Amino acid sequence: MNAKFNSKFFSGMLLCVCIGLIAMQLTEHFYWLSSNGLGLLTLAILVGIGLGNLKFFTPVVKDFSPGIQFAKQRILRIGIVLYGFRLTFQDIGDVGILGAMIDLAVFLSTFGLAIFLGVRYFKLDKDIAILIGAGSAICGAAAILATEPVVRAENEKVTVAISTVVIFGTISIFAYPAIYNLGQIYFANIEFPLQFGVYIGSTVHEVAQVLAAAKSVGSDVADTAVITKMMRVMMLGPFLIGLSIYLSNSYEKILDSQSTNNVSKYARLRTLKSGTPWFAFLFLLVIAFNSANLFSVEWVQYVILIDNFLLAAAMAALGLTTQFSAMKNAGMKPLFLASILFLWLVFGGGAINLAATALSKMQFVI
């Protein structure tokens, strides 16, 4: 690692840290921001997006990319792991098997819709349909980056796919609090915050966006949303393994038998290594520690403060890398597909949540 790379890395990290600190100061001194849905994470993303899309600032973001990417990927995962100190296994029990089944139904329906519409209707390249579908169905940019080595997509396709899910996931941050306020009118009951947390976790793209949207509603909703989302993230590993096995058949049409076997083995090994969401399991381990009450309340509160700072820096990195220019270059079809998937997640995912909740309450008498 040379000095030049070190300079870019630390400069990018410092930029994300500064934006995170600005967001923390804004929420601390201007309470009306958080009371109107503009919490810490939302503000960090917005400031990042604003700076990242300024023409004169775009070269700076590109130059500091190593540090920004580290914050967006590694720091975010550390923040999610530490988020476990806010939760216990009792909270997971409140979500239960119902949340897992909702996650599975949303994942399968969203990815299937992406492939059907993307390839058959919009005539998109299969790789980009898979990438957008994975990002929408599982966990946004993280799923796209994990899927890329399996489908071997070009960098341009990856950029377009990430841009679509980040854009519509960011819209979710503002849309879901409004949906929550509307839902309180028609579905208000003591269980509604819990149910809405499952809804957010099972339908919003990114882990970061789930946190931002849910925290704008309330801490009780955020806890349930994160647990539900982490269950959804854990589907990434099995999905990539299955996708690798499926796509290995198409490799055989291009490569000879010996190289095909090597490619298949290599792809599967890459899938197991890069696709397994290890941070999700660390998240559960931290919850186990917290459930055992091994640490004092004061120590846990200190860790939560550090976690807020890390998450704010990660949100800033996510905003800085949201480039609207990539969408213009890709044309409208990927955007149309992503918008339909977004609407499906909001309305179709909502219908799945309502149906699952209703079925869980039914009592069958034989």
What does this structure look like?
- With 366 residues, the chain is mainly α.
- Helix content is 84%, strand content 0%.
- The longest helix has 33 residues.
- It starts with a helix and ends in a 5-residue tail after the last helix.
Oligomer: single chain
Instruction: Give the mean pLDDT.
Output: 81
Class by SSE composition: mainly alpha
Strand portion: under 5%
- What series of H and E elements makes up the topology? HHHHHHHHHHHHHHHHHH
Shape from CA axes? globular
Please give the alpha-carbon distance between the first and last residues: 69 Å
Number of helices: 18
Helix content: over 70%
List how many beta strands DSSP finds. Answer: 0
Query: Uncertain runs with pLDDT below 50, 5 residues or more?
Result: 252-258
What is the radius of gyration computed over CA atoms, rounded to a whole number of angstroms? 21 Å
Largest sheet: none
Provide keyphrases for this structure.
single chain; 18 helices; mainly alpha; 366 residues
